[in-house]
Amino acid sequence: MTAPRVALRHSLHRVDVCVVGGGMAGICAALAAARHGARVALLHDRPVLGGNASSECRVHICGADRHGGIPNLRETGILEELRLENLARNPQRSFSVWDTVLYEAVRLQPNLDLLLNCSVLDARMRHGAIGSVTGWQLTTETHHTVQADVFIDCSGDAILAPLTGAAFRVGRESRHEFGESIAPEEADAKTMGMTCLFQARRHESPQPFEPPPWAYRFETDSELPYGTGGHRWWEMGYWWVELGGEHDSIHDTEALRDELLRILYGVWDHIKNRGDHGADCWALEWVQFLPAKRESRRYEGELMVTQGDLESGGRFIDTVAYGGWAMDDHHPAGFWSVRIGEPSTQFHPTPSPYGIPLRALISRDVANLMFAGRCASFTHAAMSSARVMGTGAVMGQAAGTCAAMAAASGVRPSRMVGRAPDLQQALLRDDCYLPGVPEHLPELTRAARLEASTGDPSPLLTGINRPVGDDRNSWPCAIGDHVSLCFVEPRHVGQVGLVLDSGLDLIIAMSYHQADAQLTAPPPVLPRCFRIDVLRRGLWETHARITRNHQRLVRVPVGVNVEGVRFTLEETWGSRTSQVFRFAAEPSHGNR
């Protein structure tokens, strides 16, 4: 008897914004769009969110602060919110708990539909724009078709490019095309490769290791990149176990993974069995089977950011994000560059920060397509800096905010370039940092009288919500200190908006090779308990008391007519002093 055929399920979703790819760029894009009122669908082809930062790959998030080497340039906004949540709930730095923090933020966000294990495989065009995309959800055997006004590709591999015909590039531009000194003389299809990491753990007794028979065998240190200097960081493995730049970094991924595993186990065999490396009591705990990619397709946007743009500081009129990682260009041969005596990577300096324009996040030829992350519109040289996840996350928040504003206005994303000042102010209110662009504080705040129990509170009016160079842009405070805004006559205050001190000079990157320098709890300087008082009929009264804060951006609803509002610091997470970077009376509730 033949079993009856069962028709595959097909589900239709109609949203304002569709985000493809749930890495850090896609998470921030989807959350930003939803918080700005858009109905959002996020399609991700893996069971966990985070992309290279997830438990499947375990790459730490790098950015403009360069592992804390450049103080006060850590990315804020949604990325900072997620990292601070992780510090409060994940002191052991478990990547599975981090997965859960990301999952919870997306799953519980109103207006956001999350489709995990859903790989986009088709797109339908209509009059030069994307009408819908369709993904296959492996776990439910269901096709999901998503119709949207704006689509944001954060997939890393720019999957919507071949599906829509959007212009894209692969490989390295020639030196003369954009006048880039670090580019090769002739253009080619070579890229940076992909990596498989491992994690090892120390035991109380010796742990033998028998390599699999198919692993490579490296007898001497000279056969490995960096020789004897490369045998550190056993807790996280080695980025230089890398291949793919001389191959097709998308279609050859399965074969490249096999080769990377042969190298990885060969390296561990060398550490354990080929010389005295002090690893007798160490054993493998985890091996990465999903390679972490650095480069594949890159879109051509309304503007392509170049090496020269980065080196000049990225001074764009439509700056909506920033970077600052060095141009970190990995050799296409990856691990095997050791055989030809060339370095695995070359660093070329960039200023930190440099601005990133909105035009680099908007397709030049598909009307409603945006993108963020390593597939954004950068040359290969510039992308070697902008590819890191901290930079991708702030690009994602900018793209998501822009997409929501465009959908609400019924315009194409390209029309938002002319409205860049409005977009910039929305991002600044959400605690993003845009170099050289101050926030325009609400009229309600500017019209008030600003006073403090101690110190000078006037830096709170600069509209710059972090230290920049020698300028602190803050009101310093200690336990019991307070700052207030008082009005000439009673005014309706929707909420009090605060940007607090989260220690932007500290390291919170989940990086296992910097274990001693990293926080495993909320920053000591961060206010943990504080009070918001309101002035009514000449008397201060407590309106709200926040008792276990672990966030930098805090919005406290008020919703009544008052003669003033006041912030009082009651407790930090350990420090005797703290700072406030923004204290504003606002007319309405924010986006969180």
Identify the CATH homologous superfamily of the largest domain: FAD/NAD(P)-binding domain
Global Rg: 25 Å
The average pLDDT value, as a whole number, equals: 96
As a percent range, the share of helical residues equals: 10-25%
CATH architecture classification name of the largest domain: 3-Layer(bba) Sandwich
Care to describe what's here?
This protein is of the alpha+beta class and 592 residues long. The protein folds into 3 domains: 298 residues, FAD/NAD(P)-binding domain; 100 residues, no CATH class; 144 residues, Sandwich (Jelly Rolls), CATH 2.60.120. 19% of the residues lie in helices and 28% in strands. The longest helix has 21 residues.
Which descriptors apply to this entry?
592 residues, alpha+beta, FAD/NAD(P)-binding domain, Jelly Rolls, 3 domains, seven-stranded antiparallel sheet, five-stranded parallel sheet, 11 helices
Summarize the structure.
Strands 21, 22, 23, 24, 25, 26 and 27 form a 7-stranded antiparallel sheet that branches. Strands 4-3-2-8-20 form a 5-stranded parallel sheet, covered by helices on one side. The protein has a 4-stranded mixed sheet with strand order 1-7-6-5. It is an alpha+beta fold and 592 residues long. 19% of the residues lie in helices and 28% in strands.
